[in-house]
Amino acid sequence: MQSQSVIIGRQGQQSVSIDDMSVSKRHLSATPMSDGRWSIEDLGSTNGTYVNGLPVVTAIVDADTPLMLGSLQTTLRQLLNLAPASATKPAAEHNPEPSGIAAAKPAPMPASDSMPAPDVAADGSVSIKHLEAVYEKYRHDTLTIARRRNHASVYRILPMAVGMPLVMGLVGMFTTDIAVKGVCMGGLMAVGSALTLRMIPMGDRLAEEQFDLNRRFQVDYSCPCCHNFMGAAKPYEVLVKQGQCPFCKAKFRE
User: Fold this and answer.
1) 155 and 230 within one domain
2) Which residues share a beta bridge with 68?
């Protein structure tokens, strides 16, 4: 049996509210399934929903499947860190076993080799200064992948959008033979198709890079004490203002 759906969007009253102008007010619904996966549905968003780089209206995904809402790169596991307690309470009361929204709360991540030992002060607070560089690197790398994806999209349409009018214009200057024009058009379409096919593996590689980047980020951008992921939608400045880990309640300091 499916539990309560989560509405993800830019409006404050949504189960998960996102401060990103590329995300629609009511962008996506996510419903937990009995097998631990999620059924998602785009709610007619302006900029679309993408799973592994492909546009979707409905899809079945895991909590860690790479998603893109508008231009926001994320996963359901990252987004659901923002869900208020009221969104998870009905599912928890209905089924005492961890399932649905309650199951989306991330388990502690194993510490990576690059993760420093906790810097605990005399008052018990722990330094999270290293998370600033972790977040900035993730944001920079994500934007780089997004730019490469946009460039790949341009390269796919460039031969047809620019090349065909240009070639046909030049051919028209020297001949009016319809057969010659047809041969030129066919050749240009073949070149465009070849370039498009060549770009498909690049899109797959970019999706894999983003997936690996998300996985590393979930490990490195975590509480130094309990190693729970802090969430992609929580920049370093938000963690500092928050003042403590939402999971183990360790006090944060810069």
Assistant:
1) yes
2) 50, 73
